[in-house]
Structure formats: structure tokens, C-alpha cells
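*Target chain*
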Amino acid sequence: MSRVNLAIIGGGLVGASLALALQAGAKARGWKIVLIEPFAPGHTYQPSYDARSSALSFGARQIYQRLGVWQEISRRAEPIKQIHVSDRGRFSTARLSAMEEGVPALGYVVENAWLGQCLWQSLDKDVISWRCPAEVTRMEPLTDGYRLTLNDETILECDLAVLADGGRSGLREQLGIGIKKRPYNQSALIANITPSEAHNGMAFERFTDDGPMALLPLPDNRCALVWTRLGMDAQRLAALDDRSFLGELQDIFGYRLGTLKQVGVRHLYPLSLIEAEEQVRPHLAILGNAAHSLHPIAGQGFNLSLRDAQALADSLLGSETAPGDFATLQAYRERQRLDQSLTVGFSDQVTRLFGSTQPLVSLGRNIGLLGLDLLPPAKRWFARQAMGLGTRPDE
């Protein structure tokens, strides 16, 4: 039976980011960290038209710069130079501009495969070891850590177990950690689109009576589509042939990017706001979608998880105690409580405000969008939320 200081259960983007954030400090302290992941990461990046992507906020760029990996990530990171927010059939729009905010970009859109490769290749094998493909089937709390049973019957003990195994975490349920779930009764349809005109780094947030949609700029003049519809209608859209699908999308979105020429594989994801009722216990921390899963339209989910990972690393490395100390984990939780509360609230309220078809709500949000474009303080507040800087003071 072997023992490590930290076991990160889930080697995806959040788990790998945490490992990278801990790496230098762990090496100085002689800590050993293991990443346990059921799906082996690819050794080489393979371009794909249908690659899934993530929207990284400007705050996420700052974190990855601090970790020394941004220069590599930026090679295939498409900058968001402007965000155009509109409500279909109404008079008001708002525009956010990187130039007005004094930043090189409001955010960046990066293919998950590329981001993952950049993270995995930056990990020091002398500090971070992989158990992959491998899966934890059982977690048993000890007085000084956790005992993990893997699917090959291997037993591993750790001072601190970090659960980062996604929103459908079976281990979270096994440990008796409840969730607060608020279904949106919607599904997100995800696909990549090619328009006839250059996107020039423009991201679009378009709100309609049938649900919000976002088109985000990708490399090679593709756009990442996130289209939120009621469940049955989302299934109908997913089943359409490409020409019919592009026709409906064109009708809703308009011709701001010219003719929509190509659509890739479509994926559907049922949407709910999910929050774990506990994020820390002695010798246990929960990160990523296992801790909180947000509506994708505001683009805040991964960015919040990345800030959590950085804050957890800072708390662990800033403590004189061994990983797993409950007071240290509680301090981390308190440190992130405001950020999580504001970000979850912002994402949820944007979703509900722009998902309502009630006439008074519709009028109110149009006045709000108009005011957002006319009132610099309100516009700056909204921009800082979008950039992942909403809980940070101006520098």
C-alpha cells in the first residue's frame, strides 16, 4: 500500500490546473501528488473541426500566466475583442470592448484538447504522477487522510483527497454529500459553426423568447455555438439535417456574420444549477463541476473552478500544516465563499432574466441593456464580471 500527500481524483482541466498550481511549492516541500484519471490524455494535439472549447476569462489568463503556461496556451487561443449583447426583436443592445477596458482581450476561446495538452505537458513527473487509466471506486475516511480503492483493486492512501471528477460525481454521492439542484428545464445545444464573414474576435450573446444563445470566436474563423432551448425543442434541433438547422439558426441570429455555411456535430446537455452542500471536510476538498455546475450562457463555470483551484493551492502552500488540515481547508472555503456566491448569482440571474418571456421583465431587461451601454460604471461592473475580475479590486 502506497501513500501520497495529495490525490487529485479527476485529471481533467480543473484537476490538472490544481496540480500545476501546486507543483513548484510541492517540489520544495517534498510532497508527492497523484492524478487519478479514467481517460488517458492524448500525447499530441489533433486539430478537429468539432473540438469542444472553453471560454477563458481575462482573469483565467492571469492565472495561467502566473503558472508559466499561458504563452503555450495562447498559440491557439482566440481573443474575444468585443462582446455584442442583444435581445431579439427589441431595440436595445450593449457592447463591451477590450479596448475600453484597457485589456488585450475580454477573454479567450480555447479548444479543450489544446488546453489539456498544454497543462499535462507542463506537469513535472518527479512531483506529479499519473494513475491512468484508473478510477476510484471507493473512498474510506481515516483519522489522518483517506484510503482510496481503485478499479484494479490497488489501495492508495493520501493526506488530502481532492474530488474533481465532474458534475455527476458518484464519489460525492458515496460520501453522503448532498447537492442543491435547480433545474432550468432547458438543454444546451453545442456545435461549431463557420460563417461566411470574418468574426474579427467578436462574441455574440443573443437572447430570445425561446432561450439565449452565444456565438464565440474560435481559430480558423469558426465559432462555438451554445444554443439554449427547451428540452424537446433542443432534441428537435439536434435531429435536423445541416441545411435545416443552419436555416433556423440564421433566422434567429441574423446576418451579422454573413451566411452561416457549415455546422459540425451537435451535442445536447440538460441544464441545472447544481451546488454541493459541502465543499470541504477534514482531508477532503471538492472542486470543479463536482462543487458547482453553472448554466453555460454566461461562460463562468470553468473560470470559477480555476479560481477555486488557484485559491486552494495558495491556501495549502501558505499553511505550515500538512495537506488535509481542516482549518486550512475551511480558510480556503471562506476565502472563496464571496466569489462563488457572486459568480453563481450572476450566472443564475442572467439566465433567468433573459429567459423570461413576461412583458414587464422583457421591458426591464431592454431598459437595463440600454442603460448598460449608456452608463460607464454599470458597463464596467458587467465587464469585470465577464472578465472574471468581479470580486477583485482594481489594480
